[in-house]
Amino acid sequence: MFTARLVSLSCRYAQRQFFRNRRQLSYLPWLTNSKNGVVLSDSLQRLPHVSAMQVRYSEVAKRRKEIIDNEEWTLIFKYPFIHRIRFFCRMKVYHTAFTLLLAPTSLIAAHFDLVSSELATVFLCASIAACLVMLVIGNAAERIVGIIYLNQDRSKLRVAHLTFFGQRADDVLNTQDVANFADIGEKWNDILVKVHRYNVPDHPFFVTLRHGGIVDRELFQAVFGHDDRFPT
């Protein structure tokens, strides 16, 4: 019963992750049909009846890269320990793969009476629990911001964070969609400070400022507000 319960919880978590990723896709820049072919429109101007599954992700990513390359970006924040988090994310993938291999191996060994069924059950439960923990921790690590850039006219933010596999991913946000820390009750000296987005309120990013990282304080405050108690 305990094993079945763990399997059920893991399936539910995977299902929630799948639908969460589908919702995130709907906030990407949208490709809509026009007389001249395909054009890119901002997420705020997307048609509500268009399904996220109709977006060709590769073309969106290619077009986003072109937009990023054509803008002039100023570095305003860089988390000094983002490389350690990246190393942890990659180790997490290897650890998850190892535990997934351990579970069927223990079941096969129990089938041939190489180990007891009780020991195989322990390995199976430990593998499922470890995978769940890795998924939860990995989901949290994906939201930690490593680098923040601001474009020349201060209308867009370029936020660099990690993917589940420890690769870099860049998101472009409108500064009007990003809340000041004080407006949402966040303090600069907290361990994790929420980067709240009005258009995606259920999927915030997080920054940590305790260990420094602010490169351009003036531009950083222009986006996230002021906090005189926080040391320069």
TrEMBL record:
It is a multi-pass membrane protein. InterPro entries: Tmem186. Keywords: Membrane, Mitochondrion, Mitochondrion inner membrane, Transmembrane, Transmembrane helix. Belongs to the TMEM186 family. One of its GO terms (cellular component) is mitochondrial inner membrane. This is Transmembrane protein 186. It is found in: Mitochondrion inner membrane. The chain crosses the membrane at residues 93-112, 118-137.
